[in-house]
Write a structure and sequence with these properties.
The chain is mostly helical and about 300 residues long. It has 13 helices and no strands. About 70% of the residues lie in helices and about 0% in strands. The radius of gyration is 19 Å and the shape is globular.
């Protein structure tokens, strides 16, 4: 049996691997592994701790800081960073060389995640309406992208960081796609490459502020309208399937050039000989996700939110 820390690192590794792929987020994997609520709860504690610092309440900061489950968050972060460092170039190469097959694989992963999340939902008419509405909006929006911003003002990096960080805790949303849709992808990438301390720092500040505000809002909704929130998350994952449809181009690669071109939002029918392998990989991924979910459900060692 693997230790709890090792399992948490492996979960983080899977989340980081998903984050590398356009159209897939680590939040999707967290939902499948049954740690989404726990992750959101701890991120929310961190947000409140930052709020205590802003208010000058250092005693409150210390209390909330110590309440954060660092033994859970730190191994998870180690796994995420390890996956991004080890797999980014490998997955990018596969996305470039075998786009339809990779799209099929991740299409099955997200489809399985939708089924898992649906099993956690006590569905009612209003939940279905929210799910379908959000799914439709996400599907349409992911088909658009803004032209690249030329020499954006510093404040634009603040907004970009605040919005893009939402992908960390929203299943079905990719941070790189959010930046692309805002026309800020090349600008942020250029700031990192150029080591522009001001723009990168403002982007990071926006990410911290956005994560704090958004996690607080999500925790509020989770505490009062859990099924409604879950329905919305399922809708986001349904909408994200547009990016993962294997044909005609598979999962798109965001260019590092100034035109920010992407080919992964087009929809089409497969040509002869392009069906079998993507479909097979989708079925395998679907089965793996559902199987992992059932194993996670049987684990009794994971503490519940009631004991956090």
């Amino acid at each position: 049996m693997l230790s709890r820390v090792t399992m948490t690192v492996l979960r983080g590794f899977c989340m980081g691997a998903a984050d590398v792929v356009p159209g897939v987020s680590g939040g999707t994997v967290a939902l499948v592994f049954g740690i989404y609520e726990r992750l959101l709860h701890n991120v929310g504690l961190g947000a409140k701790a930052l709020g205590n610092i802003v208010k000058g309440d250092f005693a409150g900061f210390r209390s909330r800081f110590l309440a954060i489950q660092w033994v859970f968050l730190l191994p998870l972060a180690v796994g995420v960073l390890a996956a991004i460092g080890l797999l980014a170039s490998v997955i990018e190469g596969l996305l470039r060389d075998r786009p339809e097959e990779m799209a099929g694989l991740f299409f099955g992963l997200v489809l399985g995640s939708i089924v898992v999340a649906w099993g956690q939902l006590t569905a009612r008419a209003n939940h279905l309406a929210v799910m379908l509405a959000i799914g439709l909006v996400a599907f349409v929006l992911l088909g658009f992208q803004s032209g690249p911003a030329v020499s954006p003002p510093t404040l634009a990096y603040l907004g970009a960081g605040a919005i893009a960080i939402c992908a960390m805790i929203l299943p079905g949303i990719s941070g790189s796609f959010l930046l692309l849709m805002m026309g800020m992808y090349a600008a942020v990438l250029g700031a990192v490459h150029d080591r522009d301390v001001v723009d990168v720092g403002v982007f990071a500040l926006g990410a911290v502020v956005g994560l704090a505000l958004f996690s607080t809002a999500l925790n509020w909704v989770l505490a009062r309208h859990k099924d409604l929130l879950l329905a919305g998350l399922i809708g986001l994952m349904i909408g994200s399937l547009r990016v993962l449809w294997p044909w005609p181009h598979g999962v798109g690669l965001i260019s590092e050039e100034a035109d920010e071109s992407i080919s992964g939002t087009g929809l089409g029918l497969p040509e002869s000989g392009q069906v079998a392998l993507p479909v097979l990989l989708a079925l395998v991924a679907f089965a793996v996700v559902v199987g992992i979910s059932r194993v996670a459900e049987r684990q009794t060692s994971e503490p519940s939110l009631a004991r956090i």
